Structure formats: C-alpha cells, structure tokens
Automatic annotation (TrEMBL):
Residues 231-248 have a biased composition (Polar residues). Signal peptide: none annotated. Belongs to the WD repeat ATG16 family. Residues 12-197 form the Autophagy-related protein domain. GO terms for biological process: autophagosome assembly. It comes from Drosophila madeirensis. The keyword Repeat applies. PANTHER family: AUTOPHAGY PROTEIN 16-LIKE, AUTOPHAGY-RELATED 16, ISOFORM F. This is Autophagy-related protein 16. The lineage of its organism: Eukaryota, Metazoa, Ecdysozoa, Arthropoda, Hexapoda.
Length: 613
C-alpha cells in the first residue's frame, strides 16, 4: 500500500512540475526582463530622490548667494532633465512590455483552449481505439472458432462423401437389380399380353364373320350403286369402294368425348372399307387392335384405313415444318388456341412466336425480359396473352398483339416450372421448386395467396376458366388437388415415381400424368383413380420436366422420349404410331386445339411440326 501511495505522490509531483514547466517556460525571459526593468525603475527613483534632495540643498545654497552655485545648479538641472527623459523612456518601455504580456496571456489562453480540445479529442480517440481493440480481439476469437468449426465441417463433409460414395455404389447395385427385375416383369407382361391378344383375336374372329355375312348383301348393293355413278365410271373398283366408304362413314370428329370402338362405325361401312382395299378379317383385327404391328404386305392397306379415319383420327405422321427455334436447348412449346401459331421457350432466355399458317421459319416475334432459361409457356383462352416461367425465380406476361412485356411476377425462392391462368385474365397461379404455389392478382401485380405443397412443383393445370380447382404434380410422386373456393386440399393421388407433367382433356374429366418411371398414367377425375397406363419398351421420359399432351378430341396422347421419338397412344391403351425426326431427346410436345398438328421441341435447337397431310 505504501509503495502505491509513493508512486501516486511521485506521479502528482511529476505532473505539477510538468505543468509548471509548460506554463512558466514560455514567459521566463519576459518576467526576468520585467523584473530587471522594475529594479532599474526603483534605482532611478532612488537616484531621482537623491537628486531632488541635492537640488533642494543647492537651491537653499543659492538663496544665500554665490556664482559657483549657479554653475552647479545648471549642471544639476541638465542632469535632472536627462534623468527625466530616461525615466519617460523607461515608462514607455514598461507600457510596451505590459501590452506584450497581455497579448501573450491571450495567446496562452488560446493555446490552453486548443490544448484542452486536443486532449478531449485524444481521450475520444483512445476510447475508440480501445473499443476497436476489443472488437479485434472478439473477431480474432470468432475467427478461431470459425476455423475450428470449418475443420469440423470438413471432417463431416469427408465422412458424408465417403457415406455418399458407399450409398451411391449401393444405389447402382439396386438400380441394376431393379433393371433386371423390370426386364423380367416386362417379359412376363409381354407374355400375358400375347395371351390376352390371342384370346381377343379368337373372340373377334368368332364375332366378325357373322357381322360380315349379315351385311354382305347391303355391301354389294352399295358397291354396285357406286360403280354406276357417272363421276366414278372411269375409276377402278377399289376407288369406287373407297368413294362408297367416304359416303357412308361417320367422321371421327363426331365422336369427340368418347373412346372409339367398332360399335361407333356402321358395320356395312367397315365391310365396304375392308373389301375396297382388300383387307381380310385377320389383317383388320391386327390393324385395329395391335396398333399397326402387322406385316409389310398389309401396311399400305392399314395406312389407308388410318387416313380415312376408320382406325380413329388420322395421326400427324408427316413433317410439315422443321426449324431452329433457339440458340441452344428448347424447353417448352404451346399452340395458340385461336390461330395457327406456336410459342416456344428455351435456355437462351427467350420466348419466340412462330406463324405456322405461313410456313415461315423466321419468328413472328421474340419476347425478351427473362434473365434465365424459360421452363414453360402458355396462352390465355383468347390467345391475347402469353405466360412464361423462368429459372430466374419469376414469371412474365406478354401481350401477343404488340409483343410487349406487361407484368413480371417475382416472389418465389426457386425456379418457376409452370404457370396457368385462373379467372382469366385477372389471376395467375405459378408452381415452383421452392415447394409452394402462388396465386397472383394481375391488377395489383401482387401475390394474394401462397399454398405450401411441401414438395417441388413440376407442372400444374386448372380445371376451368374460373380455376376453381388447381391440380399440381410434384417431386414427391404426388398429385395434389387445391380448391381455391374453400381453401381446402382434396385427397392426394400417389404415383410410382416423381411427376414431370400434367395435361387435362377438353371436358376436364380425364388427366394424363407423365411419370419418371417411363410411364404415362390416365386418371379419371370423377373417381380420382388411375384407369390406364401407357408404356413401351423403347419409351423413356427424357427429363424431369418432359411434357405430354392430349389431342383436341381427348382420344390420343403424345409424349416425347429420350431416344428422340414421339410416341402416340390412343386412350384405349394401344400404341398407334411413333414419330421420328429428332436426333436428341424430346422435352415437350403440344397438340393444336383447332387442327391435327403436333409441335415438338427437344434438347437440340430444333422445333418440328407434324401434320396428317
């Protein structure tokens, strides 16, 4: 304690001495000079007093008389005058020194104020410096903790990589085993299908000859009438038969809304068509019920039946137009509902409109505004607006008439895969990989409702123009149903693998769902259950957003494959044809709503339009 007190006292003495030195050192010389002047003034006053005394003595002596005294008096007066002048000069110098002292005191005060300000600033800087040192210390400690955490995470990452490699090896083994099991299953299914086909053929062979015998007389009369017509007099017998066939047949367009069967055609018409083109019972059965898998000798006859619509609506097997749609991969395609125009979207961040009616390979318009690849495109029911989704977490609305960007909808935290109009043209619903569906009001350009699905959405559809029900397909293998009027979710439908696309029939009663296990499911929405599955040993879904499509009548289904082919099934479950033209995987197909045209895009830049004529 005594040592600390001694140090404290020494510190106080040192500070006092330092203050004394700072305050006295600058004025020491002035003070000494002033003291000398004061001493000198005192000396002069003493001398002046002596001279005054002597002067009085001299005056008293003068009063007594004498010449010598007059000289002494004059000398003393002269000396007194010089002393007075010197005294005046000293007073003057004293005044100057006093003024100098006052000026120096003012300067000292100013310096003292400046010094106090600097000391205050120095104290603040020291405080700030101490604070920064504390922060640096905290940051150093935080850095050390982060380094330790990073090392821990690196160790965990290494362990997870090893575990992942092990799991990946197991997955490959399981995939190989699954592939073998699938091959075995397909072989068993093929055998079952062969047996079923044999049974069907035997039943049909028993039924069809009786029908042919009952209607043979009417068929002969029809053929004779056709031959007698003047317009057909120069034609051959098969041509006349086909003319009769056209006259008596029922148009496939009249059968919209149901599945085509033999009962939908007049029996005489079927008989006439078969006899006109030289097709026997077995060949007709193969053509009608085995999707055209017949020998080459009957191929021309089967094609004739297909062309006239007796095996359903004719398939668009001919390439009408082929063009480079985008600078790189094409992702989406959609027909306009009111004109022969198709919209495509690709990885080059553009939506392009193509006028197919003019057979033009130059785009009618290029719609820009997206900052990432386009995932889907869709028109409203009037064809006036086009809606596109993108990998930049947004969706956009353009007007077709002036090709202007009207709305940009941002709010998702993942890429937006699909969008459809709800309550046209007021609202839009979007589905994203952020596991949500959002409903947007285009009048306020704002999200008015968010539905949390719990899984990435790959595609969605709405049941009607009012959008009362939204159907969405997800990565977790589920189809979800959302009723926006009651804000309730109906029962989900579970698929065997993740869902890549959805499409509704025109009457909104049937839904097709493309699944990643290389199948397409047909659902009856009135029962909410799968009623049919479409597959083929060569058919492979190309990607996680591959799009399948109904035709305008809802009787046929088309979907692209990883081998570059497009497979077309009828809703009875039979593969009708396979379209070639793409050299790489096909990502999306779209069937025109007002004609029998099919558009397709794939991993290459190419877009191909197929037609039935």
């Amino acid at each position: 304690m005594s040592t600390e007190e001694h140090v404290w006292r020494a510190h106080v003495v040192k500070c006092l001495r330092e203050r004394n030195r700072k305050e006295c050192e600058n004025f020491k010389e002035i003070i000494e000079q002033n003291n000398r002047l004061i001493d000198h003034v005192a000396q002069l006053k003493s001398d002046n007093l002596k001279l005054s005394v002597e002067n009085e003595q001299q005056r008293s002596a003068m009063s007594t008389g004498g010449t010598g005294s007059h000289v002494a008096i004059a000398t003393l007066e002269k000396k007194l005058l010089s002393q007075q002048e010197e005294l005046t000069e000293l007073h003057k110098r004293k005044g100057e020194n006093s003024q100098l002292i006052v000026d120096l005191n003012m300067k000292v005060e100013q310096q003292r104020i400046i010094m106090s300000e600097r000391e205050h600033s120095l104290a603040e800087q020291q405080t700030h410096n101490n604070r920064l040192r504390a922060e640096v210390h905290l940051l150093h400690s935080s850095l050390e903790e982060l380094k330790k955490l990073n090392n821990t995470l690196l160790d965990e990452h290494t362990a997870l990589q090893l575990a992942f490699s092990s799991l990946e090896d197991k997955m490959r083994g399981i995939q190989d085993e699954n592939r073998c099991l699938l091959e075995r299953l397909m072989r068993y299914k093929s055998k079952d299908a062969d047996k079923l086909n044999e049974e069907n053929e035997s039943i049909i062979r028993k039924r069809l000859p009786s029908i042919f015998r009952k209607r043979s007389a009417k068929l002969k009369r029809d053929l004779e009438d056709a031959v007698r017509e003047p317009s057909a007099s120069s034609n051959s017998a098969p041509t006349a038969g086909i003319t009769s066939l056209h006259r008596n047949s029922t148009s496939p367009a009249q059968l919209i809304g149901g599945i085509i069967t033999d009962d939908d055609f007049d029996e005489a018409t079927i008989n006439g068509a078969m006899e006109a083109i030289g097709l026997d019972d077995t060949e007709y059965i193969n053509a009608r019920f085995t999707a055209g898998e017949v020998c080459e000798t009957t191929r021309a006859s089967i094609d004739a039946l297909k062309a006239t619509g007796y095996l359903g609506q004719a398939n668009p097997t001919k390439i009408l137009l082929k063009f480079e749609a985008h600078e790189n991969e094409s992702h989406a395609v959609r027909w306009s509902p009111v004109e022969r125009m198709v919209a495509t979207g690709g990885a080059d961040r553009k939506v392009k409109l193509w006028d197919i009616g003019k057979n033009s390979t130059e785009p009618r318009a290029v719609l820009s505004g997206s900052s990432a690849g386009i995932n889907s495109v869709d028109f409203d029911s009037t064809g006036a607006y086009i809606l596109g989704t993108s990998n930049d977490y947004g969706a956009r609305v353009w007007t077709v008439i002036d090709n202007r960007l009207r709305h940009t909808l941002t709010g998702h935290s993942g890429k937006v895969m699909a969008a459809k109009y709800v309550q046209e043209p007021i609202k839009v619903v979007t589905g994203s990989h952020d596991r949500t569906l959002k409903i947007w009001d285009l009048r306020s350009i704002a999200c008015i409702e968010t539905k949390f699905a719990g899984s990435s959405c790959n595609d969605l559809v709405t049941t009607d123009s009012l959008g009362s029900t939204i159907i969405s397909g997800h990565y977790d293998k589920k189809i979800r149903f959302w009723d926006i009027r009651t804000e309730k979710q109906a029962d989900d439908v579970l698929m065997p693998a993740k869902i890549t696309s959805l499409d509704l029939s025109k009457d909104c009663n049937y839904l097709i769902c493309s699944v990643r296990d290389d199948t397409i499911k047909l659902l009856d929405l009135r029962k909410n259950q799968v009623i049919s599955t479409f597959t083929n040993e060569h058919f492979k879904i190309s990607c996680d957003f591959a799009r399948a499509s109904f035709n305008s009548t809802g009787l046929k289904i088309a979907c692209g494959s990883a081998d570059g082919a497009i497979y077309i099934w009828n809703v009875n479950g039979f593969l009708e044809t396979t379209l070639k033209g793409h050299s790489t995987a096909v990502n999306a197909v779209s069937w025109s709503t007002n004609s029998n045209l099919l558009a397709s895009v794939g991993k290459s830049k190419r877009c191909i339009i197929y037609s039935d004529s």
